Every structure is written in structure tokens, then in C-alpha cells.
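EI: anyone free to look at a 96-residue chain?
SC: sure, send it
EI:
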Amino acid sequence: MNSLKSLDSSKCASINPIDEDLKFPHQVIDDFFNAFQLQQARAELWQWLVAALENESGDYYNEKSKKNLIAFYETLESLVEAAWMIDQNRKSKKQS
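SC: here you go
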């Protein structure tokens, strides 16, 4: 897994930990995977990455920002996969 310590977080919006969805994190995961299959989520993330890297007038014009974006993509993909595993484990326990 790549480290995101070098990412410039100054462009990121702050996350409100009291957001309504965050009170029910398992429901958020469940809703996500009811809307998107794992392979579809991976494909969407890949399309975002490609679109961002191909846009020469965007924020990812230099090597450092491109590397940061790729590291973020890889880490986000791992997060989606981990959430999928959590979702699958919860569903299999409910069926038992």
C-alpha cells in the first residue's frame, strides 16, 4: 500500500465526523455495494484516474501531482476492496 503522507491536503474539504451517514457506517457500505458491484467500482475509479491524467490543463500537470494522484487511486481502490470484504463478511454472517 502506498503512503499518502506526501499528498497536498490543502485542497481537500474537511470531513464532518458527525455527518448523518457516518452514524451508520455499515449502512453506507451496504448502500454503496447495493449500487455498485466491486468490479464496477474499480472500473469507475480507473476511469477517473485516466480522465484526470489525460487532462493536460487540469491539476495533475506535473510528475509530483501525478504520482500523488496514482498513490491516492491505489489507496482508495484498496479501501473499496476492504469495504467490500467487510460487506461480504457481514452478509455471510447474516445468512448463517
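EI: Residues 13 and 44 are 22 Å apart (CA to CA).
SC: 👍
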